[in-house]
Amino acid sequence: MVIAIRSLQFASHGTLDQHGFARNRFWAVDEDPPPFPTNTLNKAFVDLILKPSEEDTKIWPHSFEYRLRIALGPGGDLMLTSRIRNTNSDGKPFSFTFAYHTYFSVSDISEVRVEGLETVDKIYLSTPTKIAIIDHEKKRTFVLRKDGLPDAVVWNPWDKKAKAMADFGDDEYKHMLCVEAAAVEKAVTLKPGEEWKGRLELSAVPSSYCSGQLDPQRVLQGS
């Protein structure tokens, strides 16, 4: 699984270059992060901090602090928690869109179903808080649990787009699927001092899908 951050702007939904600039910046490690909530003390975690540089303020004239907490549970569950705070001193609000760009390795794209969503290369609005990616051949299901991220994006370049991409193998589309938890339809607006939080938890569970034996609702409910 590969993760990138399409934050401060999703795709071309804004005035910045495609997908914004946060994904292309160096982040700092917070050596003294705030404590974790009590119910997640068993998770190992690291906090990364992103603040605007002088070059950033030339293309997006706002001051902010973006804290990304990456936590790993003992069972392999991965939790990503993003907090973005408006630190403008001029009293101005700012708005942004956001997505976690999560790529999943799959056996064969033709043997994969995204429970509750219909097809590839599409934006879904007001989606459920839980989404399941069911890989029939590998008998494995990825479960995405999200909070503060009402939308979802499903993407696979398929054969023609894959051949046109310089950094993508012609047949690599067969073994990947991108499902993104996102805030796309309505941009998030923060006044100075306000903070937004978006969280995504990813886990993999075994499944025995065969001729309808797997009930996706039971997977989503944790049964």
Automatic annotation (TrEMBL):
GO cellular component, one term: cytoplasm
InterPro entries: Aldose_1/G6P_1-epimerase, G6P_1-epimerase, Gal_mutarotase_sf_dom, GH-type_carb-bd
Gene3D superfamilies noted in UniProt: 2.70.98.10
Molecular function per GO: carbohydrate binding; glucose-6-phosphate 1-epimerase activity
EC number: 5.1.3.15
SUPFAM superfamilies in the record: Galactose mutarotase-like
Keywords: Isomerase
Catalytic activity, reaction form: alpha-D-glucose 6-phosphate = beta-D-glucose 6-phosphate
Pfam families: Aldose_epim
GO annotation (BP), single: carbohydrate metabolic process
Family affiliation: Belongs to the glucose-6-phosphate 1-epimerase family.
The name this protein goes by in its record: glucose-6-phosphate 1-epimerase
Organism: Arachis hypogaea (Peanut)
